[in-house]
Amino acid sequence: MRRHHTWTTTIALLGAMVVALASCGQDKPAVCAQADELKASVQHLRDVTVSENGIDALTSALRQVKTELEQLGTEAKSEFQPEIDGGKASVDQLSSSLSAAKADPSATSLRSVGTALKSLDAAVRTLQDAVAGTC
User: Which CATH architecture has domain 28-132?
Assistant: First the structure.
């Protein structure tokens, strides 16, 4: 009878461990989901074709990136502040470049947009790398 009691206890403990381990993978911090949203909005921004959709489409997509970045900042509080600040600076730079390109759609202003977009992409990758340790 003692052996049966030991097996029952062992099986119950193993079952509890499996449930506990399974739930660990599901409880990602909200900052992880928000980082994924930011990544998706940056991908959408990159996918905009200026020759087909115009500068206004880029501006609209950039607004979404800015919103997602702000929401990530809210979720992260001060944890990733330097990386979030870098992302915000890149958003501001791209916004300025887009305004200049809209006012004067020259090859020079469009190159500036491309450079600012690459800068934003790098800033978001840096932020993603920082957040990945939490997720």
Answer: Up-down Bundle (1.20)
- Overall residue count recorded for the chain in this entry: 135
Whether 119 and 93 have beta carbons less than 8 Å apart is answered as yes
Tokens describing residue 112: 């500036």
57-102 pLDDT per residue, tens: 999 999 999 999 999 999 998 999 999 999 999 999 999 999 999 9
Do residues 109 and 38 lie in contact, with contact meaning Cβ atoms separated by under 8 Å? no
Asked whether the beta carbons of 113 and 98 are under 8 A apart, the reply is yes
Do 55 and 98 contact (CB within 8 A), yes or no?
yes
Span 45-59, pLDDT tens digits: 999 998 899 999 999
How far apart CA 48 and CA 28 sit, in angstroms, is: 31
Single pTM value for the model = 0.77
Sign of CA dihedral 14, 19, 20, 24: positive
**Beta-carbon contacts of residue 119 (< 8 Å; ≥ 6 apart):** 90, 93, 94
Residue ranges covered by each domain of the chain: 28-132
Sequence letter at residue 50: V
